[in-house]
Specification:
One of its GO terms (molecular function) is protein-N-terminal-alanine acetyltransferase activity. β6 and β7 form a beta hairpin. With 160 residues, the protein is of the alpha+beta class. Helices cover 31% and strands 35% of the residues. A 7-stranded mixed β-sheet has the order 1-2-3-4-5-7-6, with helices on both faces.
Length: 160
């Protein structure tokens, strides 16, 4: 398993995984992922096996200068056949390291019925701060808004 910046060549696979992971919702298209990359957001892929198959992806947007930054986890998905193997944890930790590099508070939304994801986020310092009613469409499922306070380390202090 290796993590690397998401490649444009993998965007069709991302869209394929979205359709698998979020049936009955409005999964992201290849164009939506391309737009995220065009905006310069931080996206990673998790690659496995001799074929270097994309088995997971995650994206983070960061706004503001170091010490005042905020970050938002835009997406995190893992191929169902690769779930429960630590792929999501690796991707999340990499996103958090990116946010920590600029001391950013991190926000995300997660379905209220996605207990494994909620547990993963809680284990990494996130807490629930709100509910977004009917956030996911077209199903109308609710989402928790969760946040993790900024982590200020030596690298951030040096940049400030």
């Amino acid at each position: 398993m290796r993590l690397a910046r998401l490649r444009r060549a993998d965007l069709a696979r991302c869209a394929e995984l979205e359709r698998l992971l979020f049936p009955g919702e409005d999964p992201w298209s290849e164009a939506a992922f391309a737009s995220e990359l065009d905006w310069g957001h931080f996206y990673l892929g998790a690659y496995a096996g001799e074929d270097d198959l994309l088995v997971g992806y995650a994206g983070l947007a960061v706004v503001g200068p170091p010490g005042e930054a905020e970050a938002s986890v835009h997406t995190l998905g893992v191929d169902p056949t690769w779930q429960r193997r630590g792929v999501g944890r690796l991707l999340l930790r990499a996103l958090l390291a990116e946010a920590d590099a600029v001391a950013a508070t991190v926000f995300l939304e997660v379905r209220t019925d996605n207990e494994p994801a909620i547990a993963l986020y809680a284990a990494h310092g996130f807490s629930q701060v709100g509910v977004r009613r009917r956030y996911y469409q077209p199903s109308g499922a609710d989402a928790y808004t969760m946040t993790r306070p900024a982590v200020v380390g030596e690298a951030v202090k040096e940049k400030a």
